Amino acid sequence: MIKEFKEFIVRGDVLDLAVGVVIGSAFTGIVNQIVEGLITPLIGWIVALITGTSDLDGALSVLDVTPVKGVTFSFGNVVSAIITFLITGFVLFLVVKAANKAKDLRKKEDEEVLDEPTAEQYLSDIRDLLAQQVAEDNGRSTLQAKIEDESNIK
Fold this sequence. Notes:
It is a single chain. This protein has helices spanning 2-10, 12-51, 56-60, 75-114, 119-153, and strands at 65-68, 71-73. The chain is mostly helical. The chain has a two-stranded antiparallel ribbon. The longest helix is centred in the first third of the chain and has 40 residues, at 12-51. The radius of gyration is 38 Å and the shape is elongated.
């Protein structure tokens, strides 16, 4: 059982997945900071211009709904989370697209390497050329013999 677990862990897919999870979580932190530091204040500023408030937190709280005292639906936070998700998804899409393109280029390079003739192909080409040359030489000898025969008859 331990041997099977070791084989499972050592497989490339599991390691690639682990690396992807670690990089993805680090990348999510970057995207969260971009959304919290740049996009949310930009949306708050736009909402503040529309509503006429000067406080950015107050401007974003316009999106919040409080139906009963003490119960608040923070739609501003939901909008921020949706924006974070969309940005993260789009950037990961670009990363995967670039990785797939690099993978396709590597496959094309491998195919080009496979198209190169092997030693056996070279040897068979040499054999065919030598056989053709021998056949041509034999044809000349026969022709020359005919010419000599004709000249001897005359």
